[in-house]
From TrEMBL:
Residues 186-218 form the 4Fe-4S ferredoxin-type domain. Pfam families: Fer4_16, QueG_DUF1730. This is Epoxyqueuosine reductase. Catalyzes the conversion of epoxyqueuosine (oQ) to queuosine (Q), which is a hypermodified base found in the wobble positions of tRNA(Asp), tRNA(Asn), tRNA(His) and tRNA(Tyr). The lineage of its organism: Bacteria, Pseudomonadati, Pseudomonadota, Gammaproteobacteria, Enterobacterales. Binds 2 [4Fe-4S] clusters per monomer. The keyword Lipid biosynthesis does not apply. The active site is at 144 (proton donor). One of its GO terms (cellular component) is cytoplasm. [4Fe-4S] cluster 2 binds at residues 208, 224, 251, 254. Belongs to the QueG family. It comes from Proteus mirabilis. GO terms for molecular function: 4 iron, 4 sulfur cluster binding; cobalamin binding; epoxyqueuosine reductase activity; metal ion binding.
Length: 384
């Protein structure tokens, strides 16, 4: 029996990754010591908001070898999720429809990637059993599901660089992809990082509706629409509600304006195809769903975890931002009594509708959003 050639194994891992549906696979060590002071400074400024688990696990996030003792390498993967007919501009330009972040239109990505990563780990184990290898191969897959800094690891593994919006960008694929990690106890050869290519561009910073990108590479989650509509359990601060427009689950603005996303590829995964009820949906239709219907349609979807009341909370804000219609006010009035937080948002939305009725105003978009829609239509015609 011959000895295990780790270089040949690394080549096989990348080939198996492609066969399993990943667009890229890279390998890095576990040293994220350079990230620790940045992470601590971010936590000290309370930029994590109500995400207490961020502070709870602290520097463990930068130490994969402590998360899974014995880990020597991290295999980092990316998988495209941009669906056909993304309808970015079409939805953002229609205040009577709800905009859902495009990653959430299909099946929950956690399950899809974790299953593939597990298969990759099993292939590695089976391969090693054919050779003289003193030890047991241990691996654990993670997909946005543990205290681990997936983006710095992806950068170390050569999958791209971190843009000023804090997301990983690849010069051949943009940023419309999910990341996953396989922690493993094999001393595999590592890949080299790629050079950052954002230059002086600050398009993502100037486009963010709420000013959440407080400085390059730094997000104040408390201002981010994705945080406000997904992670925040209580009331959305009033100052941000008008700025949310019709975004009811997440926000893609910083990616939509990014020039590198002109090179993005569509997903090859049927699981990420939009569910009909969630693609370019009418706000009033969504608002009239019963809890049973919400749970049924969002089964196996990342949207389900916010729960029915937060779903209604988000939609009520979007309805408040929509042009005045009698039927909107009537729909809002019918939802009182389900919860104090929701009731407060309903009162706000009704007040906004009444102001629009009195002013007879047709202004429904900020100049910032109009610029974004124009940029999408011109720069991303396939996905507009």
């Amino acid at each position: 029996m011959s000895s295990l050639d780790l270089h040949h194994l690394a080549q096989n891992i990348k080939r198996w990754g492609t066969e399993l549906g990943f667009q890229q696979t890279g390998i890095c060590d576990t040293d994220l010591s350079l990230e620790e002071p940045r992470l601590q400074a971010w936590l000290d400024k309370q930029y994590h908001g109500e995400m207490a688990w961020m502070a709870k696990y602290g520097m463990t996030r930068a130490r994969p070898h402590e998360l899974v003792p014995g880990t020597l390498r991290v295999i980092s993967v990316r998988m495209n999720y941009l669906p056909t007919d993304a309808a970015f501009a079409r939805t953002l330009n229609n205040p009577e429809q709800g905009y859902i972040s495009r990653y959430a239109l299909g099946r929950d990505y956690h399950k899809v990637l974790r299953q593939r990563l597990k298969k990759l780990g099993e292939k590695i184990t089976q391969y090693c059993q054919q050779f003289e290898y003193q030890g047991i191969v241990n691996f654990r897959p993670f997909v946005d599901s543990a205290p681990i800094m997936e983006r710095p690891l992806a950068v170390k593994a050569g999958l791209g660089w971190v843009g000023k919006h804090s997301l990983v960008i690849n010069n051949q694929a943009g940023s419309w992809f999910f990341l996953g990690e396989l922690l493993i106890n094999l001393p595999l050869p590592i890949d080299s990082p790629v050079e950052e290519q954002c230059g002086k561009c600050v398009a993502c910073m100037t486009t963010c509706p709420t000013g959440a990108i407080v400085e390059p590479y730094t997000i104040d989650a408390r201002r981010c629409i994705s945080y406000l509509t997904i992670e925040l359990e209580g009331a959305i601060p009033e100052e941000f509600r008008p700025l949310m427009g019709n975004r009811i689950y997440g926000c893609d603005d910083c990616q939509l304006i990014c020039p590198w996303n002109r090179f993005s590829s569509l997903t090859e995964e049927d699981d990420f195809s939009p569910r009909r009820a969630l693609h370019t949906p009418e706000l009033l239709d969504l608002f009239q769903w019963s809890e049973e219907k919400f749970l049924r349609i969002t089964e196996g979807s990342p949207i389900r975890r916010i729960g029915y009341l937060r779903w209604l909370r988000n939609i009520s804000v979007a309805l408040g931002n929509a042009p005045y219609q009698d039927k909107i006010v009537l729909a809002l009035q019918e939802r009182f009594g389900l919860g104090e937080v929701l009731d407060e948002h309903l009162h706000w939305a009704i007040a906004q509708q009444k102001v629009k009725r009195e002013e007879k105003t047709l202004k429904i978009q900020t100049s910032q959003q109009k610029r974004l829609v124009r940029a999408i239509t011109k720069g991303l015609p396939r996905d507009a």
